[in-house]
Specification:
The protein is of the alpha/beta class and 394 residues long. It has a 7-stranded mixed beta sheet, with helices on both faces. A 4-stranded mixed beta sheet has the order 1-2-3-13. The protein contains 13 helices and 15 strands. 35% of the residues lie in helices and 17% in strands. It binds pyridoxal-5'-phosphate (PLP). Pyridoxal-5'-phosphate binds next to helix 5.
Length: 394
C-alpha cells in the first residue's frame, strides 16, 4: 500500500522538487496537528489566509448552516443570493464611499484579472503601470504585472504595454501618463519581503493618477483584514484607491476574492459587450457566508486593535546577531538574515521544533512572520524562543 505522501508525489501535480511534505490531520486556532497529535504553530496563516486561526467555530457553524440551505445555484451575477448580498453590504459599509460595488471572484488572481479588464474598459486605454518586486498572482494577466522577470520569462508573450516603476521613486511617476489605463500596486508589498512605501510617495502617486485619469488599483489581497494593524492597509496612508483588490483572508478560510470600485466605474462591465467578466463559482454562497462570518468575528472580537502591540512584541523579542532587520507593519513581518542558505536552515529547524514559517517568493533571505491575528502574547514569546534557538543552532 503506498503511503499518502507517495500518492501525493505520484498523483498530485508538483510545482517544485522540494515540497514541505507536512501532513496534518486537523487544525484549530493557531495550531495544525499531525497524525500523532503533535501541534505545529502556524506562523504564516497558510500564507495570509487564516487571520482568525483555523476553524473558528463561528465560521464553521455559519458554513454548516449555509451548506444545509444551498451551495451553487447559478453563475455569478444572475440570482439574488443572500450570502453574496449580505457580504457585499457589510464590506461596503466598512469602505470609503467610492468603493460601493463588489465583484466577487474565485481567487486573488481572478480579482487582478477582473480589475485590469475593468480599468481598460472604463478608461478606453490599455497601458498599465506596475511595480518592481510586486506579486499579483500566477495567471497570465497577473504575471504580466509581476515585478520579477525570473518567474514570468517562460510565459512570454504576456500582456503588452506594461511599464515597471520602482516603489518610492518620485521621478518615475512621470511614466504615468494620459495613456495609462491603471497603476497597480500592493499597498504593502508582500512577496518582495514586506516593503512598506513612503506615505508622501503614496500621496504623490494618488495625485498623479488623478492628474492623468489613470485608475489606481490597490492590491490588498495579502494586506487587508487587520493584517497590518488597520482593517484595510490603505488606511495607513492618506489615499483611497479607485479599485480595491481583496482575497486570501476575505473568505475566512474558504476561496473567494473581490475587486471593488464605484458603481460608475463598475458599470463599464455591463455594455458593449455585456458580461464584461464572467465567472461560474465567483462569490460562491458558502464562501461568502464564511467571509461574512469571519469579518463579524474580526470586528466583534476587536482583533485589529491588538495587532500593533503584537507587532511591537515580535520586534522587541527578535533581536539576534544573525538578524539584519525585522521590517513590516502589524503581523505582516519579514525577518532578514544573511542569505537563503542560512534562512533555509533556520526555517527547517523552526519546523522541526513545531513552528511553521517560510520565505518570500521574491526575497529568499527573509523569513515570513504572519500568524493568525488571534495569536496571544505568550504564543508570540514561544514562537520567538523557537526562532532565536534556531538562529543559534544554524
Ligand atoms: N496579490 C497578492 C498581493 C498576493 O499575495 C497573492 C497571493 O499570494 C495574489 C495576489 C494572488 O492570489 P491567489 O493566489 O488567490 O490567486
Amino acid at each position: 500500500m503506498p503511503t499518502l505522501r507517495q500518492l501525493f508525489l505520484a498523483n498530485n501535480a508538483q510545482t517544485t522538487g522540494f515540497p514541505l511534505l507536512l501532513e496534518f490531520e486537523r487544525a484549530e486556532g493557531i495550531y495544525m496537528y499531525d497524525k500523532a497529535g503533535r501541534p505545529y504553530m502556524d506562523l504564516i496563516s497558510g500564507i495570509g489566509v487564516s487571520n482568525l486561526g483555523h476553524c473558528h467555530p463561528y465560521v464553521v457553524n455559519a458554513v454548516k448552516a449555509q451548506v444545509d440551505k444551498y451551495m451553487h445555484l447559478m453563475v455569478y451575477g444572475e440570482y439574488v443570493q443572500t450570502p453574496q448580498v449580505r457580504f457585499a453590504e457589510k464590506l461596503v459599509s466598512l469602505l470609503p464611499g467610492n468603493l460601493q460595488s463588489v465583484y466577487f471572484t474565485n481567487s486573488g488572481a481572478e480579482a487582478v484579472e477582473g480589475a485590469l479588464k475593468l480599468a481598460k474598459r472604463y478608461t478606453g486605454r490599455h497601458d498599465i503601470v506596475a511595480f518592481h518586486g510586486s506579486y499579483h498572482g500566477s495567471t497570465q494577466g497577473a504575471l504580466s504585472v509581476m515585478g520579477n522577470e525570473e518567474f514570468k520569462q517562460a510565459y512570454r508573450p504576456l500582456l503588452p504595454g506594461v511599464t515597471f516603476i520602482h516603489p518610492d521613486n518620485l521621478q518615475e511617476l512621470e511614466l504615468i501618463t494620459n495613456q495609462t489605463a491603471c497603476v497597480i500596486l500592493e499597498t504593502i508589498q508582500g512577496e518582495a519581503g514586506i516593503r512598506v512605501p513612503d506615505a508622501q510617495y503614496m500621496t504623490a502617486l494618488r495625485n498623479k493618477c488623478n492628474e492623468t485619469g489613470a485608475l489606481l488599483i490597490l492590491d490588498e489581497i495579502q494586506a487587508a483584514f487587520g493584517r497590518t494593524g488597520t482593517l484595510f492597509a490603505f488606511e495607513h496612508f492618506d489615499i483611497v484607491p479607485d479599485i480595491l483588490l481583496l482575497g486570501k483572508a476575505l473568505g475566512g478560510g474558504m476561496p473567494v476574492g473581490a475587486f471593488i470600485s464605484s458603481n460608475q466605474v463598475m458599470s463599464a462591465l455591463k455594455e458593449n459587450p455585456i458580461l464584461g467578466h464572467i465567472t461560474t463559482f465567483g462569490g460562491h454562497p458558502v464562501c461568502c457566508t464564511a467571509g461574512l462570518a469571519a469579518l463579524e468575528v474580526l470586528l466583534n472580537e476587536k482583533l485589529v486593535e491588538r495587532v500593533p502591540a503584537k507587532d511591537a512584541l515580535f520586534k522587541k523579542l527578535l533581536v539576534h546577531p544573525a538578524i539584519k532587520q525585522v521590517r513590516g507593519k502589524g503581523l505582516m513581518l519579514a525577518v532578514e538574515v544573511e542569505d537563503f542558505e542560512f534562512n533555509k536552515k533556520v526555517i527547517d529547524r523552526c519546523i522541526e521544533n513545531g513552528v511553521v514559517t517560510d520565505w518570500f517568493l521574491h526575497c529568499s533571505n527573509a523569513m515570513r512572520i504572519a500568524p493568525p491575528l488571534t495569536i496571544t502574547y505568550d504564543e508570540i514569546e514561544k514562537a520567538c524562543r523557537v526562532i532565536l534557538n534556531a538562529l543559534d543552532c544554524s
